[in-house]
Amino acid sequence: MSRPVLDVESVQAFVSIAEFQSFTKAAEALGTTQGAISVKLKRLEERLGYKLIERTPRLVRLSAQGTVFINPAREFIAAHDRARAALSCDCRRFRLGIAQHVAGPEVPTLLSRLNERDPALTIEVRLESSHRLMEDFDKGELDAVIVRQEDHRRDGEDLGPEHFAWFAAPCFHQQEGKALRLAALAPCCGVRDIATHALTSAGIEWNEVFVGGGHAAVMAAVSAGLAVAAFSCRLAPPDVVDVSQRLGLPSLPSSRIVLHSTLTDQRSREALRTLAAAYREHRSARVSEVA
């Protein structure tokens, strides 16, 4: 019995639908129409003899067979892209900025996925505050940035919400009548501004006892029981707890994570699609674990 021959476009359509969980968004990402991508998926399912995507008016998700096939499908696409890139000596730089309050355990996955997709791509990564990265992006010093959305900007590709809360070590004790001991990344940090504004508006006295040193240093200070800090619920250290209710601290507004880029050539756009899909996929998995 002969094995079915797979074509790259059909497999790419399936992978894109799975990653975006949307026929419309997958079609937009691949620069085609919803009808065309549906035809490609149907052709792939007929060749394999399995239903890969379950689709209802409100939901698009992998079938049981699709869940089994998704990783081999990604490997198939990655192998195709590596083979194509091997014939090209067009080595390029990709300057990527990731905000410190956004970067998490998904970063190695993002970089690995980019490298698999385009081995000729030299990836340079910078971790800074969202504000600093946007300044450098606007000056043309970065090709793409993943940052917390700033209030005055509505451009960029929305990668999903980011929720914040107050975290401290389980042993942290706040003395009654004393100012709240606060840790923050730096005076220009956007999350710090949100946190201090919320405390001031609630009439809670606070005192910064640890400022700067990077995200890891702030997390270490909080884990050691030295202070309280505002963290993304997704990225809070595993050894700290949400103390918002226990300490009577004000709720913090949610934000959005946004991908900005001005790149327009096909290879760069493919890299950006890979980046966005990997971020959404890892973030979705992490949120499910936390829930």
Automatic annotation (TrEMBL):
Transmembrane segments: none annotated. Residues 6-63 form the HTH lysR-type domain. It comes from Alcaligenes pakistanensis. Belongs to the LysR transcriptional regulatory family. This is LysR family transcriptional regulator. One of its GO terms (molecular function) is DNA binding. Keywords: DNA-binding, Transcription, Transcription regulation. The keyword Glycoprotein does not apply. The gene is hexA.
